[in-house]
Each structure stands twice: as structure tokens, then as C-alpha cells.
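Comment thread on ticket #2218

A.B. wrote:
> Attaching the input chain for the structure job we discussed in standup.
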Amino acid sequence: MDHQFHKIRRLPPYVFAEVNAMKANARAAGEDIIDFGMGNPDQPPAPHIIEKLREITLDPKVHRYSNSRGIPGLRKAQSSYYARRFGVDVDPETETIVTLGSKEGLANLSSAITTPGDVILVPNPSYPIHPFGFIIAGAAVRNVPVGAGEDFFSAMERAVQHSVPKPTALVLNFPNNPTAECVDLAFYERIVDFCLFHHIYILSDLAYGEVYFDGNPPPSILQIRRAWDIAVEFTSLSKTYNMPGWRIGFATGNKRLIGALTRVKSYLDYGAFTPIQVAATAAMNGDQSCVDDMRALYKERRDVLISGLAAAGWEIPSPAATMFSWAPIPDQYKHLGSIEFSKMLLDRAKVAVAPGIGFGEHGDGHVRIGLVENVHRTRQAIRNIRAFLSSSDSEPSAENK
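C.D. wrote:
> Ran it. Output below, let me know if you need it in another format.
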């Protein structure tokens, strides 16, 4: 049967596929590829978190179905986190829910609140689930260009003015993946007032809220009291506690939106494995020095990468947060675009990065470099890139110009 599934037709080919295939082939041929492509933490969770998982797994009663909303202790831990970190009161019964990672939460809330044909505002470039969660749900996504030289609020005004029907939701992500851009509370004040005026819900992705290096910790949109009328915020334990494979995150905020997500999830899953939720509770309530260690690790890698590439002739802004560097393609290679430049870097320097176009067309002048290799490997990558940039045969061929 040759049947075209409507939702699948709306998903473009995976833009990282070509680079990933080259990476796999190179490794199959025995080549040593230094992989900065995926934001996949390379360190384990702290020992006390793993020990709690081991301990609770031995209890025969915990292997049954869990709670779709998340066990009460974990929801209370999230409430306590918001109180001490942001000075915000969260009702663990009605204003927060445990998700299978922030990605699942975003996708399921998109499904819960979307009527086919709704218009959703999504910054571009952005993490793929931000637009495609809504596209899968049947919405029309309107991109809001962000980055150097872009006035976000002017772009928002244009998007609202020229959208039919009027937008129903806006996705935000600060600190941002992939650009590492950060905002302050004044930004959130302004965006909340804008969205209240236009009756637009806000889905804020704060997955990197604890991965910061310089200056003040990133704020939460929920520190703006008016935001509780229209906003939900997604957080995650993946990067904060090196638990990406555990799939634990949260949605917190407006009761109506949390209620909608709760109802949808009740049909879709029984929640994460109970021992994982118990260990996650121990992570959030326990010794937080492991979070300080995580920040120190990424800061050291960031500093080595940025200074080393600058010495090699590739000037890249130093990210104040996230585990990524958003790197402008060197001038002599800009015309290639991010996919071809990433392929060239992989072929000639044996370094894998994420093409910027994978995060939207406005990302095509950049590549994303993940801080996911140790300092020794990072220095090796810098040497390889320096050799590539300085070699006479690294110049783009005439037919590609």
C-alpha cells in the first residue's frame, strides 16, 4: 500500500543525516573522529544519585506502573527547587508535572493545546522540537528570526501583524540552544506584557538554566507574576545532573496548561520508572556540589576551545551559558553553507560539528560545537582544525565558489 501519511510528509529530511553518515563511515574505516556534534553529556551522574537508584531498585514493590504525573516526592522537589532558586511558590499538585524529559513535555503540550491550523511563533534558529512539536500537532509555524542584527520585538510585532489566524502560542528558549544567547528579567517582563496583550500562550524551555559560567544565573519567566496567567516552563535534569538517558524533566506554571498536559499524558504513559524518579528526587534534594562541578567542567572546556580556536584563526564568541558554542563559519567558507562546511571539517580535520541549518534556515551561517569532549580531545581537535585552516589544500575549490 502506497499511502502518504500527512504528519510524516510535514517533516523534512533529517538535515544531520549526511554528516552523521559520513561520521559513521569514517569510524567504520578506523578513523578517529572527535565528535562535538550532539549535546550528549559525557560524564556520569554523581555517585549518590546512582547509589539511590541501585538501592531503590532492589525493592520488589517499585517495579509496577508508576504515576503519569510523577511521584509526589519528585513534584515536591521541583517545588522546592523553584522556591530556593527563583523565589517562586509552586503548588506541587496543580502547577507542576514530571515529564519524560523536557522534549516529551514540549511535544505533548503542543498536542494538547493545538487545533490544526493554529499559528505558533518560534524563534529561528531553534532546537528542532520547538517548531516540529507543533508541526506534528497540525499547527502552522511562523519563524521569528533571532541573532545578530535582529530586533526580536520588532520581528514579533511583524509576525503577529501578518499572521492569519492570530498566533496562539510562542516558544522561548533561554539560555538558547543552539545560539547560547541569554536574557534578563527585563526581557521576560516585556515579552509577558506583549503576549498578555495579544492573548498568546508562552512555552519557555529552561533546559540549560543551571549551565552557566559568567555573571548572574539565568532567570525564570515564572519570576514574573503575570506570566502565570499564560506561561509554562520546561526544565530538565539531563544537563544539570548528567542524566540525559534517564529522561526526567518537568513542566511548571499555569494551572490550565499543566492540566491539559496532565490529561494528555494520562492516556500516553504511566510515568518514568519509579526508581529513576526516586533517584531524581535524591539528586534535586541532595548535595548540589555535583552541579558546581558540572559548570566548572564545561567552563574549562569552553575556555580551552575558544582560546585555542582564536589562536588557530577562528574567532568564536565565548558562550555565557549552555554546553554549546555557536560558531560563525569562517569567511572563506561561508558560501559553502553549514552542511558542506561541516562535511569538510569532518573529512579534513576529523572533527564533527552540527550544521547550523539543522536549527532553521537562519542558522546556516554557523555550526554548533558541543563541549562534550574532554580537554585532551578538545586540544587535539584544535590542532586538527588549525592544520586544516592553514593548509593550502583547505581552500574551497573553484567549482564550489
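A.B. wrote:
> Thanks. Noting for the ticket: DSSP finds 13 helices and twelve strands in the chain.
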